[in-house]
Design brief:
By secondary structure, the protein is mainly alpha-helical. Helix content is 52%, strand content 4%.
Length: 208
């Protein structure tokens, strides 16, 4: 079993979590949008919203839905999305936000697209090691380059994401942080051991 999955708990996807978790996620979106009390969705409208999200975004989690709405309110998805809900938090509005989020994952607005690919694996591992040591000092980045995720997959630290999750920023971000968190919990001060610039050992493989 993957060492990370033994230690770090992951939010369950909406298709398998309790509906109350999804309601809490939507309540977070309502608060971010500044919906006034008189414009709050009715009980029936809330149930329709829950069914809409669960049916159309079953592999999203509470964390990812909050992440998407937070980015939308911060105008991170570019000029193509009018993030204002104009007092109506509807299925149409939620769909527009999440469509923009999905496009952002694949487009120029994604932080994960600004990485260098022409780098040899050991140079990348050295960069990952530096970021992990910053993590241990409490210097945690909001975003890490997606190249780190692919390096961790290559090094068998994590299992590749499947389905649409494999194409989205948030799940990759969480996988990177899970590896860092797992190593920190196990008291590892480094991820790789190098001799003359060549990796000779990785800490998760040697610990498992």
């Amino acid at each position: 079993m993957n060492l990370c999955s033994q230690i770090i708990k992951v939010d369950p996807p909406f298709q398998s979590c309790k509906e109350e978790v999804l309601r809490q996620s939507l309540a977070y979106g309502l608060t971010l949008c500044g919906i006034s009390p008189q414009n709050m969705p009715s009980k029936l409208e809330r149930e329709v919203l829950v069914d809409f999200v669960k049916s159309n975004y079953p592999d999203y989690t509470q964390g990812e839905l909050k992440y998407a709405f937070s980015k939308a309110m911060a105008r991170k998805f570019g000029p193509g999305l009018d993030a204002k809900c104009y007092g109506s938090f509807s299925c149409e509005y939620v769909g527009r936000v999440l469509e923009a989020y999905q496009s952002w994952n694949n487009g120029d607005y994604s932080v994960f697209n600004s990485v260098l690919y022409d780098i040899n694996p050991n140079e990348l591992r050295e960069s990952v090691q530096h970021l992990y040591q910053q993590y241990l000092k409490g210097e945690i980045l909001d975003h890490y380059p997606k190249a780190i995720y692919y390096q961790f997959v290559y090094d068998h630290y994590i299992t590749p994401l499947d389905g649409t999750r494999a194409h989205r920023v948030y799940p990759k971000q969480m996988e990177i942080k899970r590896v860092f968190n797992t190593l920190a919990i196990n008291g590892a001060s480094e991820i790789y051991i190098f001799v003359e610039g060549r990796m000779i050992e990785n800490k998760i493989s040697s610990a498992s």
